[in-house]
């Protein structure tokens, strides 16, 4: 039984994107300034890395982008060192067929945080990967064609493999897959594979992200309260992340997290 409220460091936004990922807006410095204005002590940039994704647009960083990202990030780290800690991380999207390539690329740089995600799934048929977190109609229809239950089962199994293989430090937005799919969600019927996934997270000494973009999209964070309850029971650390894609979203909804943990998780209302 969970008897006390878990610690969560609300002074740090652990998941922030910038224009470098090609689907967010704003310069890195704008995000840093918004973090300072929000009273944060740390901002963690967590930019996208993918490998051999076949898709109709680029929503991740190239290696040249990462060079520029580190150059600018280190400049900002020094410039604002007396006001906020600037940390440079990566949100790596797992690719089972190119996992060694991902590992090689990760090992080339020194990251402050390595977030583990799974965004793009190969289609049984079709030229493009399935984008599991897209609101675009073309992606929603493609997922429907494969079948939501099949996709979600594969998602959880593959994400567990990703946690076991990659040198991750935090698991990002666990139940966000298919978040724009009508009538599809990762509910309690997936408790068994979720427990297997969380046990892998615990074994690796990783944290679980409370992604506050969920408050905007569905009224609750990612992951859902029943998943957080399982994680807390395993004594997995929780870290907050806004998943900001524009500067003004840095630290969004952090003020709701303690109450949510108390009322929706600890008291199980």
Shape: globular
Name the CATH superfamily classification: Metal-dependent hydrolases
CATH topology: TIM Barrel
- Main sheet record: 7 strands, parallel
What portion of the residues fall into strands of 2 or more residues? 15-25%
What structural category arises from helix and sheet content?
alpha/beta
Query: Helical segment tally?
Result: 9
Total domains, how many?
1
N to C succession of SSEs? EHEHEHEEEHHEHEHHEH
Strand order of the largest sheet: 1-2-3-4-7-8-9
Low-confidence stretches: none
Query: Which class in CATH terms?
Result: Alpha Beta
Rg (C-alpha, Å): 18 Å
Overview of the structural elements:
The chain is an alpha/beta fold. The protein has a single domain (12-266), classed as TIM Barrel, CATH 3.20.20. It contains nine helices and nine strands. The strands form two sheets. Strands 1-2-3-4-7-8-9 form a seven-stranded parallel sheet. It has a two-stranded antiparallel ribbon with strand order 5-6. Helix 5 runs parallel beside helix 6 and helix 8 (225-233) packs across helix 9. The chain is globular, with a radius of gyration of 18 Å. The chain starts with 11 loop residues before the first strand and ends with a helix. The relative contact order is 0.16.
Keywords:
single chain; 269 residues; alpha/beta; TIM Barrel; seven-stranded parallel sheet; two-stranded antiparallel ribbon; 9 helices; 9 strands; 38% helix; 16% strand
Can you give me a brief rundown of this structure?
With 269 residues, the protein is α/β, with parallel strands linked by helices. It contains nine helices and nine strands.
């Amino acid at each position: 039984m969970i008897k006390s409220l878990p610690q969560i460091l609300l002074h740090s936004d652990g998941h922030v994107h910038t224009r470098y990922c090609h689907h967010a807006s704003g310069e890195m410095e704008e995000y840093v300034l918004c973090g300072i204005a929000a009273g944060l002590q740390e901002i963690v940039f967590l930019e996208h890395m993918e490998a051999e994704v076949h898709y109709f647009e680029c929503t991740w960083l190239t290696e040249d982008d990462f060079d520029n990202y580190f150059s600018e990030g280190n400049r900002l780290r020094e410039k604002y060192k007396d006001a906020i800690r600037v940390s440079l991380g990566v949100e790596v999207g797992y690719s089972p067929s190119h996992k060694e390539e991902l590992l090689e690329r990760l090992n080339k740089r020194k990251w402050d945080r390595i977030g583990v995600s799974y965004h793009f799934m190969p289609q049984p048929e079709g030229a493009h990967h399935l984008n599991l977190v897209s609101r675009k109609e073309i992606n929603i229809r493609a997922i429907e064609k494969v079948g939501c239950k099949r996709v979600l089962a594969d998602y959880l199994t593959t994400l567990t493999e990703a946690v076991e293989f990659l040198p991750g430090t935090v698991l990002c937005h666990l139940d966000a897959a298919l978040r724009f799919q009508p009538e599809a969600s990762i509910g309690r019927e997936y408790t068994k594979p979720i427990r297997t996934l969380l046990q892998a997270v615990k074994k690796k000494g990783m944290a679980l992200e409370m992604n506050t973009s969920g408050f905007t999209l569905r009224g609750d964070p990612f992951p859902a309260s029943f998943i957080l309850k399982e994680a807390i029971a395993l004594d997995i650390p929780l870290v907050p992340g806004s998943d900001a894609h524009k500067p003004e979203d840095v630290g969004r909804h952090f003020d709701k997290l303690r109450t949510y943990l108390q009322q929706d998780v600890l008291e199980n209302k």
